[in-house]
Amino acid sequence: MILTLLTPADYVTTAWSGGTTTQLAIEPAGALYADRDFLWRISSAKVELEESDFTALPDYRRFISTLRGDMTLSHNGGPALTLRPGDIHCFDGGDRTHSWGRCTDFNLMLRKGAADGSMTALRIEGETGFRPDRETECALLYCAAGSAVVRVGGEEYRLSAGESILVREISGECLWLDGAGGTLILAVQMRRVRQ
User: Fold this and answer.
1) SS3 for 82-149, per residue?
2) Which of 62, 74, 81, 186 lies deepest, with the highest CB count within 10 Å?
3) Can you name the CATH fold of 115-192?
4) What is the DSSP string of 154-170?
5) Cα distance from N-terminal residue to C-terminal residue, the chain
6) Residue ranges covered by each domain of the chain
7) Are 54 and 120 spatial neighbours (Cβ–Cβ below 8 Å)?
């Protein structure tokens, strides 16, 4: 496995109508979100408006969680769903999605028919193992709160809040995460869909 520690200095932050968005990783490397031709994208957005509408992304399936604050969502005028830090919700990027609440969110976008993946919240108390799925080609561990030590194959990485580890060339090894109570890691896995 190849692990790369990413800090906020490695991320790309831009403004949007409701606040700022920070891109942690995108595939292929160098792809532009604005072109809407990426395979997958991981980002975090600061929502500074009390109410906002999500950008329509009909070619993408989305996973969302919050890092700070609560967010209430409604898709296509349907019932409202409230997300708190660590709660994860999957939805169609083409849905008309309205949100309420100022927060910082965390997003995974997967191109329909080309990429698949998942997002999982890991609440760390002591040592916890995380083994990527066999089909996973790339994973990212994002420290949403607290801090953790990540160990794999004799290597050790210290992960603080706001930092992440990008994992490529998945080998089936288990990554061991050790942190104090209150540490929250969002684990994201991605793979290409073979046609």
Assistant:
1) EECECCCEEEECCCCEEEECCEEEEEEEEECCCEEEEEEEEEEEEEEEECCCCCCCEEEEEEEECEEE
2) 186
3) Jelly Rolls (2.60.120)
4) TEEEEEETT-EEEEES-
5) 25
6) 10-111, 115-192
7) no
Fold for domain 10-111? Answer: Jelly Rolls (2.60.120)
pLDDT tens-place string over residues 57-89: 999 999 999 999 999 999 999 999 999 999 999
Can you read off the two tokens belonging to residue 97?
A: 């999605």
Mode of pairing for the β-strands spanning 40-47 and 89-92: unpaired
171, two tokens:
């080998």
Helices (H) and strands (E) in the chain — how many of each?
0, 17
Using alpha carbons only, how large is the chain's radius of gyration in Å? 16
Can you say how many angstroms the Cα of residue 168 is from the centroid of all Cα atoms in its chain?
Answer: 16
Give 25's contacts (C-beta < 8 A, 6+ positions apart).
6, 41, 42, 140, 164, 166
What is the model's pTM?
0.94
Both tokens of 2, joined, read 């190849």
Q: Chain centroid to CA 182: how far? A: 19
Cis peptide before 28 (omega within 30 of 0): yes
Residue type, 32: L
pLDDT of amino acid 15: 85
Interval 101-143: pLDDT, tens: 999 999 999 999 999 999 999 999 889 999 999 899 999 999 9
